[in-house]
Amino acid sequence: MLLVRQILLAICVLAGIGRMLDLLIKLHPRIIHSLKFVIVL
């Protein structure tokens, strides 16, 4: 049961991160481009 809870929690966290990234991409494309640039460096 603990494992199932951890998996569900991980899915929720990943979904939340995905939504945040989606919002960032929609609202601030320039920020995303600069982040990609920083990650490349």
Q: How is this structure best described in words?
A:
With 41 residues, the chain is mainly alpha-helical. It has one domain (2-40). 93% of the residues lie in helices and 0% in strands. The N and C termini lie far apart (42 Å). 0% of the residues are buried. The model has no long low-confidence stretch (mean pLDDT 84).
Q: In terms of per-residue confidence, which ranges show pLDDT below 50 for 5 or more consecutive residues?
A: none
What's the rounded overall pLDDT mean? 84
Briefly note the structural class of the backbone: mainly alpha
Q: Which strand-content bin applies to the residues?
A: under 5%
Helix content: over 70%
Q: What Rg is obtained from the alpha carbons, in whole angstroms?
A: 14 Å
Query: What's the main sheet like?
Result: none
Q: Span from first to last CA?
A: 42 Å
The ordered H/E elements are HH
Number of strands: 0
Total number of distinct structural domains: 1
Dominant shape: elongated
**Total count of helical runs of at least 4 residues:** 2
Key words describing this protein structure:
2 helices, mainly alpha, 41 residues
Strand-helix topology:
Layout: H1 2-27, H2 29-40
Helix pairs in contact: 1-2
What would a concise description of this structure say?
The chain has one domain (2-40). The protein is 93% helix and 0% strand. The protein has helices spanning 2-27, 29-40.
